[in-house]
């Protein structure tokens, strides 16, 4: 039937199958539409990521951008939008444009430009997934591209200054989150009970903001106040990525297990120490006369031992 | 794009006068055109202008509920994202159009060699932006296809209603009108772009309706002058 399809994308952490919004969008769409994709996450191998990820390879066809990949999947009859009316299809396009214009700049900023976040989380994580020496170069390149994109689309000539734009993009992003929350309301997905392309895009953009632990988290805090969006992300993760999460337990659960092990070891060590101290204390009755008596002598006890004590 | 603002202000029943200035970009507080000059305040860009007008007591979207407002904003972003970028692409990245139409037009207020220098600078700026958002690799056909998709979406959303949100015009109507009218009336090398829009009869009817309703108060001359000035200020 359909040729085997392979998706190369960035891997995940913090309970997510991928940290990269576009990779996550494609993975989510594949799950929703039931497309059989083999997912290859980039790990520390010499097959350097060429060009932009995610990349879909099917027989000889190589497709790189999420919109094009989704189009290709639809042509292969993996269509998650089958039940949508034409108007809903139009709404999908509009909301995706909203996400790209309003939310993406702030997402890029949080990941790649905010100094604390970039240096302590993003750069080490991405660098660990790529082979040396590309790991020295590629994160920097991605950061520069993100900065470029933000400045050119949001900064106005002639100043192209980041500080002016920062406040504006976060305001826009928070407004966008509010709008999405209002649109979602209490339904499970954006168009009823089955997830569609729009859900894939929203999930792809929101989940990294929601789950990744950054030092500077103003966007995450705002998102956490919108409980229906958080519930939306969690639902998709548990329903559609459950298998991947347990398959990917090396990423998520093993670290939890490892942490638990470490904790138990620490606790054991502590309890061993405490036992030793107890033992010492129990054994130490042989010694206390020296110490205790000095104290007692201070209060007026035997005189002989302190004399012998004090004499060199 | 000036046309969007004129339409918007007309819909709010606010009188407006259009002035063309060569240094308009520098007069604007944010460097973007168009901007409005009211009393001693200067406001630029659609978002702030809408808010400014709202603060003065005129608003077109009061009758919408929250979900509809969200939809309206989403569609406005779609129009900005697709139509505006496509217009910019066509003016500045399509070599034929650039040579024959854009360079002469953009540089016309200035003497040589300033006209060439400024228009090359502008072109370089626009191409940088296209590269950053990933449109640099697109061919003309792909751009036209995107425009088609956008028009299709707008056409679906409009359906048979007079305005996008049924009875009352909103900012979205003004924005869509501005862009579509410009596309339909601007003379380019090829008519492909306007053909794409003409495929959707409800969109052309929509444009005609708004033009008749809101612009026929002015003379035909002033509306065409406004259209030409909008082209000049569209070259930003």
UniProtKB/TrEMBL annotation, chain A:
GO terms for biological process: mitochondrion organization; protein transport. Keywords: Membrane, Mitochondrion, Mitochondrion outer membrane, Protein transport, Transport. It is found in: Mitochondrion outer membrane. InterPro entries: Glutathione-S-Trfase_C_sf, Glutathione_S-Trfase, Metaxin1/3, Metaxin_GST, Mito_Protein_Transport_Metaxin, Sam37/metaxin_N. Residues 279-312 are annotated as: Disordered. Residues 173-236 form the Metaxin glutathione S-transferase domain. Residues 23-142 form the Mitochondrial outer membrane transport complex Sam37/metaxin N-terminal domain. It holds the Pfam family GST_C_6. CDD domains: GST_C_Metaxin1_3, GST_N_Metaxin1_like. GO terms for cellular component: SAM complex. Belongs to the metaxin family. This is MTX3 protein.
Automatic annotation (TrEMBL), chain B:
The keyword rRNA-binding does not apply. Keywords: Acetylation, Membrane, Mitochondrion, Mitochondrion outer membrane, Protein transport, Transport. Pfam families: GST_C_6 (PF17171), Tom37 (PF10568). It comes from the Eukaryota. It is found in: Mitochondrion outer membrane. Residues 5-122 form the Mitochondrial outer membrane transport complex Sam37/metaxin N-terminal domain. One of its GO terms (biological process) is protein transport. The keyword Mitochondrion applies. GO terms for cellular component: SAM complex. Residues 148-210 form the Metaxin glutathione S-transferase domain. Belongs to the metaxin family. Involved in transport of proteins into the mitochondrion. Interacts with MTX1/metaxin-1. Associates with the mitochondrial contact site and cristae organizing system (MICOS) complex, composed of at least MICOS10/MIC10, CHCHD3/MIC19, CHCHD6/MIC25, APOOL/MIC27, IMMT/MIC60, APOO/MIC23/MIC26 and QIL1/MIC13. This complex was also known under the names MINOS or MitOS complex. The MICOS complex associates with mitochondrial outer membrane proteins SAMM50, MTX1 and MTX2 (together described as components of the mitochondrial outer membrane sorting assembly machinery (SAM) complex) and DNAJC11, mitochondrial inner membrane protein TMEM11 and with HSPA9. This is Metaxin-2. The lineage of its organism: Eukaryota, Metazoa, Chordata, Craniata, Vertebrata. The gene is Mtx2.
